[in-house]
């Protein structure tokens, strides 16, 4: 009914239909079984995988674009567009891939090695301003051997690059960047991916939607006909969307309500520790009082991580004192045991430090939380450290203000929850080695750590890499350049009709394998 | 009257200019660059500098302001969003009608109910009707705007399924669904202002009804409805002034209501723009709200001059 037709009779008829409409809506929902709706709290800024939005909204890039390999839901590296994981040369500088045959882009064009070469070289060219370009700056170039065979050449050994592809990269058709321009990739990337979803529409401040890719190269996937990613910032509204069946899956449920909601009829829920979700306190080792290793150790022993994680984060953080999730293959329990909660030890270390009578520092914290709210944790830390005579002044500011301050080394300390691709070395490299974009946040350098990092970069298998990672954790426990509280969990709630859904250890909701009952 | 219109219009234009200048200065004084939001934490200093040069953010603030004002005044061009690169004119055209509809309906609901309640309350002073109206008014001004919204979402969408929990259904998709999608947001928007205007109508009408000229009118044998009509015309002057201001304030409350009900209107766009340091969008939205606020107050002034011709005469 057009607005101009809104006669009195029409209005009365519409009014009379109101009580019936709820039933009609329920009916239409039951019939629209092919539409999967996911509600997320944050705001998308781009569909371009090289300028990705936050980890939640990578669901968009990951449904459109694919990579040679993928870091899957469980954090296992698997081949994606490539037939198998690459063959790596002895010197760790050459990665040889063979592509699946018959894969087509959304525009019908077949995928070839030339497209892979073009995509990587476009991303690596500084002129193209790919935000994640610096992450891959150890890559040199790509050599094409045949339409399905190629080699990626590195400048120096750097095995983690494979794990970063899923979050920060994609393969698009040769020439497409010039043909379509940046706005196409950013706003409406039709025809340029190989993924399970065909981009349909982006309605700002509302949703981004997809249609099923009928020619997707993995048979039978995806099982949904339409995918809608809705932007629902308010926690209560997001839960209401789920409970009233307007959303099938929600991300970042309110931690206080999560346990109660997941037992509600018709609702399921799960939380899994992420592989790259640091819950930590960044310390600037160049600024007093963190310029003294004994003072840092005192702080590390004075923090009751278990209580913070159980009582403040409601079990949404898996406790560890080292930069490795307890559930990961690279976790070193011996290193974790070094930093037990022990106030006597804390006082002993404090006495040995340059600040035997205590000290004070400013602890920054995000005023508007993104993944987990750290404000209560900051208050708890303040009271905990007061027990050993350390005064904490809390400073609240928006994360977008704090992040650049952290990167410039302008903060004493920051309690935060940061997400990364989930590789064992990425965050350590970025924050605790020299020459990285976050190096000044810690101002920490250690020759042995650098050496261990290089040794780990040379390895592509877990077993040979493990001793280096274990030693790294022991070194970081002993020197405590940062304080780790644990690894936060990715949590989702979903309705019963959602089948084959699993919470991703990479935080981003993955729906390629999901079907609707 | 013409003098009053010209004077008020001139003052409104001056207000807009001052607001635009303050707005520009405030948005540019926010620490750090929007480039950080767009390019991410890993962006190098060179990338940040390049972004700022590309978007003219490296120029002096006054130069940026003049260029923005020139585009706005001469070409009606609000520019492009830094983060999404969307054309702002298109975004305003898409989101403004949504917010405007919510606010206008909420305003009409608030005004209609408050005039009726306030009048009944004043006419039957200290009666059960008066007590009920006053109680409602006290509750309305005391409850924070988001609270009835959250309660209604829980009670009428999650538990009853009578209304959708959020979202805006355009009129083109059916009148019934459209009304269902805006009913709760409009109601929540109107509660506070309904209470304020009810109290104002009641107290103003009580004051007028006690005036000598009203007693004279009754003594002269004028009918009760006629007397009430005269009384209302005089009592409405402060109500219209408050209503004009309330209309503008409702856009502020719409920030919360659009967030709770997940409606993609202009208030929601403003909130997102603030979080993303999207100066261009913040400026565009705040300027639109300022224009609406100024126009609403201009209309209220002119309406008051019509209700009370002495105001126009004084201005002349």
UniProtKB/TrEMBL annotation, chain A:
The keyword Coiled coil is annotated on this UniProt entry: no
SUPFAM superfamilies according to UniProt: Periplasmic binding protein-like II
Domain Solute-binding protein family: 77-433
Keyword Signal: yes
PROSITE patterns with a match to the protein in the record: TAT (PS51318)
Keywords, ordered alphabetically: Signal
InterPro entries: Peptide/Ni-bd (IPR030678), SBP_5 (IPR039424), SBP_5_dom (IPR000914), TAT_signal (IPR006311)
Location in the cell: Periplasm
Entry's family note: Belongs to the bacterial solute-binding protein 5 family.
Name of the protein in question: ABC transporter substrate-binding protein
Biological classification of the source: Bacteria, Pseudomonadati, Pseudomonadota, Alphaproteobacteria, Acetobacterales
Automatic annotation (TrEMBL), chain B:
Topology in the lipid bilayer: Multi-pass membrane protein
PROSITE patterns with a match to the protein in the record: ABC_TM1
Record localization: Cell membrane
ABC transmembrane type-1 domain: residues covered: 96-300
Keyword set includes Membrane: yes
Keywords, comma-separated and alphabetical: Cell membrane, Membrane, Transmembrane, Transmembrane helix, Transport
SUPFAM superfamilies the UniProt entry points to: MetI-like
Pfam families according to UniProt: BPD_transp_1, BPD_transp_1_N
Transmembrane segments: 98-123, 135-158, 178-197, 235-257, 280-300
Keyword Cell membrane appears in the UniProt entry: yes
Alphabetized InterPro entries for the sequence: BPD_transp_1_N (IPR045621), MetI-like (IPR000515), MetI-like_sf (IPR035906)
Domain of life of the native organism: Bacteria
Family: Belongs to the binding-protein-dependent transport system permease family.
Protein name: ABC transporter permease
Organism of derivation: Siccirubricoccus soli
């Amino acid at each position: 009914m057009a607005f101009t037709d809104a006669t009195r009779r029409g209005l009365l008829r519409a009014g009379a239909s109101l009580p019936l409409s709820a039933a009609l809506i329920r009916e239409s929902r039951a019939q629209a079984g092919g539409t999967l709706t996911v509600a997320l709290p944050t705001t998308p800024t781009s569909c371009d995988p090289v300028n990705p939005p936050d980890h939640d909204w990578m669901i968009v890039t990951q449904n459109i674009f694919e990579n040679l390999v993928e870091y899957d839901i469980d954090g296992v590296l698997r081949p994606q567009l490539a037939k198998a994981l690459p063959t790596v040369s002895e010197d760790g500088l050459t990665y040889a891939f063979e592509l699946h045959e018959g894969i087509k882009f959304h525009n019908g064009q077949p995928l070839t090695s030339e497209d892979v070469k073009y995509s990587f070289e476009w991303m690596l060219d500084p002129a193209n301003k790919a935000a994640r370009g610096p992450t891959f700056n150890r890559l040199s170039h790509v050599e094409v051997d045949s339409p399905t065979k190629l080699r990626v050449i590195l400048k120096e050994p750097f095995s983690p690059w494979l794990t970063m592809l899923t979050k920060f990269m994609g393969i698009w058709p040769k020439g497409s960047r010039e043909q379509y321009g940046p706005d196409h990739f950013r706003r409406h990337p039709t025809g340029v991916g190989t993924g399970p979803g065909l981009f349909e529409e982006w309605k700002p401040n509302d949703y981004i939607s997809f249609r099923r890719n009928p020619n997707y190269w993995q048979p039978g996937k995806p099982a949904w006909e339409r995918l809608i990613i809705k932007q629902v910032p308010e926690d209560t509204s997001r839960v209401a969307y789920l409970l009233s069946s307007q959303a099938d899956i929600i991300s970042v449920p309110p931690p206080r309500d999560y346990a109660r909601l997941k037992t509600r009829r018709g609702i399921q829920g799960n939380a899994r520790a992420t592989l790259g979700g640091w819950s930590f306190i960044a310390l600037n080792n160049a600024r007093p009082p963190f310029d003294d290793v004994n003072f840092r150790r005192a702080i590390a022993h004075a923090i009751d991580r278990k209580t913070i994680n159980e009582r403040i984060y409601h079990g949404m953080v898996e406790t560890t004192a080292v930069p490795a999730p307890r559930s990961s293959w690279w976790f070193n329990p011996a290193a974790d045991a070094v930093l037990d909660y022990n106030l006597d030890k804390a006082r002993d270390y404090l006495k040995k430090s340059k600040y035997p009578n205590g000290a004070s520092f400013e602890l920054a914290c995000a005023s508007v939380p993104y993944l987990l709210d750290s404000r209560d944790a900051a208050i708890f830390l303040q009271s905990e450290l007061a027990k050993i005579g350390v005064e904490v002044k809390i400073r609240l500011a928006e994360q977008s203000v704090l992040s650049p301050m952290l990167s410039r080394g302008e903060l004493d300390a920051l309690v935060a929850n940061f997400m990364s691709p989930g590789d064992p070395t990425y965050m350590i490299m970025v924050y605790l080695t020299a020459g990285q974009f976050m190096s000044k946040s810690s101002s920490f350098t250690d020759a042995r750590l650098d050496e261990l990092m290089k040794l780990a970069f040379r390895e592509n298998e877990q077993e040979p890499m493990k001793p280096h990672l274990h030693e790294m954790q022991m070194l970081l426990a002993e020197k405590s350049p940062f304080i780790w509280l644990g690894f936060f969990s990715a949590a989702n709630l979903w309705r019963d009709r959602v089948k084959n859904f699993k919470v991703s250890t990479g935080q981003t909701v993955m729906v390629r394998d999901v079907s609707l009952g | 009257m013409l003098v009053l219109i010209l004077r008020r219009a001139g003052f409104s234009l001056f207000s807009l200019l001052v607001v635009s200048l303050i707005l520009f200065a405030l948005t540019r004084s926010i620490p750090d660059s929007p480039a950080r939001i767009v390019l991410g934490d890993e962006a190098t200093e060179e990338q940040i500098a390049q972004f700022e040069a590309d978007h003219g953010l490296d120029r002096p603030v006054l130069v940026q302001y003049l260029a923005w004002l020139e585009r706005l005044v001469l070409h009606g061009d609000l520019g492009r969003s830094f983060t999404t690169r969307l054309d702002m004119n298109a975004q305003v055209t898409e989101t403004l009608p949504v917010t405007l509809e919510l606010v206008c309906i909420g305003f009409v609901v608030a005004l209609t109910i408050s005039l009726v309640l306030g009048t009944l309350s004043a006419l039957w002073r200290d009666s059960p009707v008066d007590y009920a109206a006053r109680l409602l008014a006290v509750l309305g001004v005391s409850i924070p705007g988001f609270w009835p919204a959250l309660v209604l979402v829980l009670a009428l969408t999650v538990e009853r399924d009578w209304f959708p929990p959020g979202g805006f259904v355009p009129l083109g998709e059916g009148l019934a669904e459209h009304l269902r999608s805006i009913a709760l947001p409009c109601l929540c928007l109107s509660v506070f202002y309904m209470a304020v205007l009810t109290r104002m109508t009641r107290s103003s009408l009580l004051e007028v009804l006690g005036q000598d000229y009203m007693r004279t009118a009754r003594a002269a044998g004028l009918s009760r409805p006629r007397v009430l009509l005269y009384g209302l015309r005089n009592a409405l002057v402060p109500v219209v002034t408050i209503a004009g201001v309330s209309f503008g304030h409702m856009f502020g409350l719409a920030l919360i209501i659009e967030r709770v009900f997940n409606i993609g209107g202009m208030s929601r766009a403003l909130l997102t723009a603030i979080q993303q340091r999207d100066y261009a969008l913040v400026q565009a939205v705040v300027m639109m709200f300022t224009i609406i606020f100024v126009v609403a107050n201009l209309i209220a002034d002119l309406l008051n001059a019509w209700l009370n011709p002495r105001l126009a005469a004084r201005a002349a």
